[in-house]
Fold this sequence. Notes:
The protein is about 35% helix and about 20% strand. By secondary structure, it is α/β, with parallel strands linked by helices.
Amino acid sequence: MADMRITTVTCVKNEGPFLLEWIAFHRVIGVTDFLFYSNDCTDATDRLLDRLQDHSIVTHLPNPATNRNYQMQALKAAKQHQLVKKADWVWIADVDEFINIHVGDHSLPALIEACGDPQAISVTFQFMANNGIEEFTDTPVISQFLHSHNPDIWGADTAIEVKSLVRRDFPVDYYGAHRPFHDDEKSRPKWTDGSGRQVPPPFRKAASKRRIRAFPARDARHFATLNHYALRSLDSYLVKNDRGDVNREHRAFDDSYWRERNDPAFKDDSILRYMEPLRAEIDRLLALPDIADLHAEAVALHIAKRDDLLAQDSYREMQAQLCAASPYSQAETDIRAEIGFEIGQLP
Length: 347
């Protein structure tokens, strides 16, 4: 698998403080090309990406969306981009997602080999909890958040979302954010989970109207896990709430989103295996002309936005609400109430 070209496609808006870690991590695991689409950035994200492009680290384009469906329109455009067309594999992921590979040298080629060189690999999420970390600090995200839900159960769900690594010969009709879509009647590609097992038929055959993006997580992560840091610090979560996300402008993340992803019951620090090479790669990027200054500016703007938000009553109330939020998702809360009621009725 020498000289394998792996392209990652990513949509961003105001992710400046987190870019270098994410790019460095993916360079460590074997990504060779980065295709970034950005929109409406106010925290130096776009300028940092432009300068990284000058250094031949990434390719950066404005998001081509003509409406609020930013990610889907970018993925449609990406399919025709040379970095995608010439890639051996395409990995579509967000800047808060890190694939933790448990086999071989912990690289993407090692994962592909372990799975039997299929045409696609769908890796299951593990939502990493905030676990009481309030303050944003400019240190690697993967070193700060080391707790999650039980890997096989998320709230009341045993089926958990995935992201997918797709080989060049997969019969793609179009790329979804979580999985490729194709006509299963015409072609049945070899498509595995993160343990090298064929993905379940209902997932593989999903009609476009259903857009299935999850399947049972049990035993699906023997070779790889997708750590999803959707919350990060409370400071960063407030900033995220202000900016919306790449799918819909000004989407409000209420405390149900927070509670669903803030279950710290299970400690998983296995991703720390990457810390030494990650720090070395971050240092290499920071040594490039202007990159350290732009990163520092992004960090400063992130903190300034946090301060600006906390000057508003609504955001102070949101901060207090999240600090006091139940440690259980609504689904778990409902189950606990039901069980408690039934137990209370026992003689």
